[in-house]
Amino acid sequence: MPEAPKQAPKPADDNLHDKNRKALQFIEDVTANADEVQRRVLAEILSRNAHVEYLRRHGLDGQTDRESFKKTLPVITYEDLQPDVTRIANGDKSPILCSHPISEFLTSSGTSGGERKLMPTIEEELNRRSLLYSLLMPVMSQYVPNLEKGKGMYFLFIKSEAKTPGGLVARPVLTSYYKSSHFKERPYDPYTNYTSPNETILCPDSYQSMYSQLLCGLCQHKEVLRVGAVFASGFIRAIRFLENHWALLCHDIRTGSINPEITDPAIREAVMRILKPDPKLADFIEAECGNDSWGGIITRLWPNTKYVDVIVTGTMSQYIPTLDYYSNGLPLVCTMYASSECYFGVNLNPLCKPSEVSYTLIPTMAYFEFLPVHRNNGAANNPISMPKSLNEKEQRDLVDLVDVKLGQEYELVVTTYAGLYRYRVGDVLRVAGFKNKAPQFNFICRKNVVLSIDSDKTDEVELQNAVKNALNHLAPFDAIVAEYTSYADTSTIPGHYVLFWELSLNGSNPIPPSVFEDCCLAVEESLNSVYRQGRVSDRSIGPLEIKIVEPGTFDKLMDCAISYGASINQYKTPRCVKFAPLLEILNSRVVSKYFSPKCPKWVPGHKQWSN
Ligand code: AMP
């Protein structure tokens, strides 16, 4: 008989309970002392970086107090930082922004000049990201008990990475996180117990990754208590993949062998640890997937699922009806708000309705400031608004975390440990309430973004330039685009951009369909690299569509907008349409439609880099 242990170990439940309690206490503490924590964070950032070139250039001279900081440092955008970023990318290792070595660049889905923004980061930021992740399940467990008794089926992916000319890796923040030891070598924790083995997540081939993650999720279907992906678009893509591949997946489950298209040896080995021949399960899945209706497919295939964990705030809200359909109305849970620059906050009321989600910024993550936004003033309404520098008065208007006002909208400005100082993230947030002294924000929008399907963010200037480039194809026919607008069509999976064009024709030669198809492709070629990556590599965006509308359609659009309260004097054609009555007018007057015949060009890394 085995010897009894001398001291009884702490039951696992107690440990978990302890960990949860500590995480919740941490949230209590940092939100109750939000202002002191923020003062300390700023002093820490400024004192450790006192000698970096950027702060000396602006004359901060080692001061670490808020007043000197605000008086001395400008509020900036990425464009202001670009020369410094380029030097770091080219291999300058001197402390330009940060006293700690820059470990890599995180490639944001926000773009500048058509290329992803490069956010310098340092090794220790991984700890801050891990800390934010560690708060999510303790919060969730207050509302949904027993989540530790099963698994999460999360569709997680890595994307390709590139090297800067100076040799630093450049990749998206989640790719960096999944490839880090924080994720790969995480100790067993019931809350990070996923159906997808690491090997399936870490495969750069998106087909093999998706296939194997679904296969493992199906094999463990009874254990699954929650399902999700980072963004709603990614989760819906997984369901669509299942629609297209369930027969193959069932074959694998029936026979206990893996589809030969899955060639990655690490994946095959990891999947074989889970996959066993199970004809009964294969029959069950075949019956469900073969059903004409896919309504509620999530709850049918994974019957113990309690919620869908995906971001549905911001532009992702366009996917809520589709998710509701597939999940039979399960709660859609948005747990966190984060970016390449910094991870910001968590949702403390995760079962609330998507429209009511608010994120509590965690005051230890960075130093936060807020620029009041008045969305009805001229500047914000300007249809083509470039980010402009702030004048002195506007710089003085920035308020601290604890000073924001309920109901007011602000642009988020961060100062990070990795060397961003008073950096405008580009997100507009509205104060929805407070957790102790820390504000909770609704995510309102990303500034200037008109079109988005997945993580792509296309602004009006890019759209305008892209349309202008496409017009060259119409010139030989003496035709111009008199008016245009756009729409993100998410009724297809994947979703795609639609442009509505009203033509003014002076020539008498008919325009062949191939010319409009060339226009579609020309628009796509002109859009930013995140869009093109979505088309080419991730397959998360479908071919762009141009719909030609009858002459006079845009007059009707204006009449309709005015009847709904738009001002006659100030009316400008919206460059993106979301309002259903306006869309109806456009769609009812379509005379022909064309799709991009192939994918635009895309290669990893910036166009200036040789890789
Ligand atoms: P990236 O820099 O590519 O990581 O993208 C970060 C951006 O994604 C943020 O600045 C937001 O615009 C958007 N985002 C991140 N989390 C959320 C969220 N929970 N809700 C809405 N938008 C989000």
From TrEMBL:
GO MF, any single term: ligase activity
Residue ranges occupied by any GH3 middle domain in the UniProt entry: 359-446
InterPro entries for the chain: GH3, GH3_C, GH3_M
Domain GH3 C-terminal: 462-579
Entry keywords, A to Z: Ligase
Family membership noted in the UniProt record: Belongs to the IAA-amido conjugating enzyme family.
Protein's name in the database: Indole-3-acetic acid-amido synthetase GH3.6
Organism whose genome encodes this protein: Eucalyptus globulus
Organismal lineage: Eukaryota, Viridiplantae, Streptophyta, Embryophyta, Tracheophyta
